[in-house]
Amino acid sequence: MKQSMKRISAITGIAGLLIFGACTKEYSVENGGNVNNPQIVGTDCRIMNITSYDSANIIPLSSMSATINLRDTVTSITQFDSLGNNLMFFSVPAYAADTIFIDPDQYFVTTLATGRVIKLHGLYDPTNPGSQFDADYVYDVNGNLVQKIYNVPISPINPALVVDYTYVSGNLTHMTTTDMTVPQIIADADLDYFTDIAPKNYLTLMPDEGRASDFNRFAQYAQFYNFGKKPVNAVRKIILRDYIGGAVVDSTVSTFSTYLLSRDNYVLGVTMRGDDQSSIPAEAGKLRFTYKCK
After folding, report:
1. Which CATH number applies to 5-293: 3.40.190.150, 3.30.1360.120, 3.30.450.40, 2.40.160.150?
2. Which of 1, 57, 152, 274 is deepest in the core (most CB within 10 A)?
């Protein structure tokens, strides 16, 4: 069942292509903003914009972007519905030591040494300042995010919600979200990858983000802050299922193909078919990426 991007409750032209091997991978001489060498993106770069286009790669559908200053600090995040000319999301984070304030009532806590997010203090109802929860982000020795643990003061059982992530060869392959008050699984996901494509600093993948209107409303921050290591390989498919009483009540399937890579191995574009992917977040179509380099 196709999910609208409104359920989040979160390039420049090609100068030339040189195709190697399979149709799922291309190398580009697109400059990515680097004026000194038109064949590379740059050194130590990260995503600052994702724009979704229609299948003909002509009409922009939506965009997700961050303004990043010279100190590599995110100063604003914007999600825009291009077709509807509608601002869907806007945030101006504020910073104090190890804390990133989303707004006066919600914030991330990071480690000062790495900037990695280790805690979220949020509201499951953004209109009610009393609807507070805290989520702890747990990482393994390799730096992979392996668990998110949610504690809710009004819940009779805590933790009230637990998200588990499973990795194989550095790639996130499975996710489960468990309502611990029952307990039962309320969502899970399976992910598949292209083993022959290993891009630099590509997408952060947390399939649970953006799927609900309460604890998982923070997908817009996923690409612009440090939530641990990113997958080693380029994602090929994401399947997400929602459950009620053990039965699947909704599912989304997003497939990725025709990766366009810069000479220095950054993803410049990919075709995403099937359902919108609210965890990135991005609409199905041709995705184009731009980067901010240090």
Report:
1. 2.40.160.150
2. 152
Q: Using an 8 Å Cβ cutoff, are 28 and 16 in contact? A: yes
How far apart, in whole angstroms, are the C-alpha atoms of residue 152 and residue 181?
A: 11
Sign of CA dihedral 250, 171, 17, 81: positive
Residue of 249, 152, 262, 147 whose CA lies nearest to 199: 262
Long-range Cβ contacts of 80-86 (<8 Å, 24+ apart): 81/5, 83/59
What is the C-alpha separation between 15 and 37, in angstroms, rounded? 12
Residue with tokens 């990113």: 230
With CA atoms as reference, report the closest residue to 255 among 244, 239, 233: 239
pTM of the model: 0.86
Half-sphere exposure of 278 (CA within 13 A, CB side): 23
Q: What is the pLDDT tens value at each position of the chain, 294 positions in all?
A: 444 333 333 333 323 333 333 344 555 434 334 444 446 899 999 999 999 999 876 899 999 999 999 999 999 999 999 989 999 999 999 999 999 999 999 999 999 999 999 999 999 998 898 899 999 999 999 999 999 999 999 999 999 999 999 999 999 999 999 999 999 999 999 999 999 999 999 999 999 998 666 788 899 999 999 999 999 999 999 999 999 999 999 999 999 999 999 999 999 999 999 999 999 999 999 999 999 998
- Check: CB of residue 145 under 8 Å from CB of residue 156: no
Q: How far apart are CA 271 and CA 53, in angstroms?
A: 9
User: What CA–CA distance (Å, rounded) separates 114 from 256?
Assistant: 30
